[in-house]
Each structure stands twice: as structure tokens, then as C-alpha cells.
Design brief:
Length: 132
């Protein structure tokens, strides 16, 4: 099945695409737990080799509570992308509300040790409505 990327952002010829899905089988609304999985594709359309070093997420729930998450690499990896290469990974996000959003940036370095930030597009997290 072909993945449908719903959100995209481009910074310095690096494109970040996001597809997000609600996972009802891992959610427990009666316990105040909702879970989403997101698929990220990073595309290096530049003419330089770049390496993803770190990530910064801003996760907001339906109450307006903001959680900042910083870390090295993505899912334990610091991928090196030659010109024209892509990197895909899948991760997840739990919330204590049935909706929210995510956005952020990756920090990359070049072979010359230049550091730059690449925007991760804003994307909503929304559970389907359920009948009470």
C-alpha cells in the first residue's frame, strides 16, 4: 500500500513529509489515552551530503499543554543522506486528550560541519469521534 503523505515542509532543499494515523487498537479513551503513529520521509534534494543529528518536537494537546521533546537522531539513528537520497522512519505519539498537534525541527550538519535546522511541518492529531 502506497503511503499518503498529508503534510510537507521544505528547508534548504531538504523536504520533510509526514503521514499520520490514529491507532484505535493502542488507544484507551476510557482511561484517557489516545495514540497516533506517524511516518516521516526526509528527502535530500540538495547538492550536499547532510546528516541528521537531533530532533526537537513541540507536542500540544487539546488542553493547550505543550511538551517539548529533544533528542539525538530519530528512532536511534543519525542518518547520512547523500544528494537525492531519502530516509523513512515511523514513530508514535501518545496523548491524554483525543486531539492535539505536533511540529518541530531537525538539526542537520554538512560534511564541513555546518549546522542548520530543517522544519518539520505542523500536523494535527485527531481521533475519530466516538458515540457515547
Amino acid at each position: 500500500m502506497k503511503q499518503l503523505f498529508q503534510h510537507a515542509a521544505n528547508t534548504d532543499d531538504i523536504t520533510v513529509r509526514v503521514a499520520v494515523s490514529f491507532l484505535p487498537e493502542q488507544s484507551h479513551p476510557e482511561a484517557g489515552k489516545w495514540f497516533w503513529v506517524y511516518h516521516i520521509r526526509i528527502e535530500n534534494d540538495s547538492d550536499r551530503t547532510v546528516q541528521l543529528k537531533s530532533r526537537h518536537w513541540r507536542i500540544t494537546d487539546a488542553r493547550g499543554m505543550i511538551n517539548h521533546v529533544d533528542g539525538e537522531g530519530v528512532v536511534g539513528e543519525t542518518p547520512l543522506l547523500e544528494p537525492g537520497q531519502t530516509h523513512d522512519y515511523v514513530s508514535g505519539c501518545p496523548l491524554t486528550t483525543p486531539s492535539g498537534s505536533m511540529e518541530g525541527f531537525y538539526t542537520f550538519t554538512t560534511r564541513e560541519n555546518e549546522q542548520f535546522e530543517v522544519r518539520i511541518p505542523y500536523f494535527p492529531l485527531s481521533a475519530p469521534a466516538t458515540a457515547d
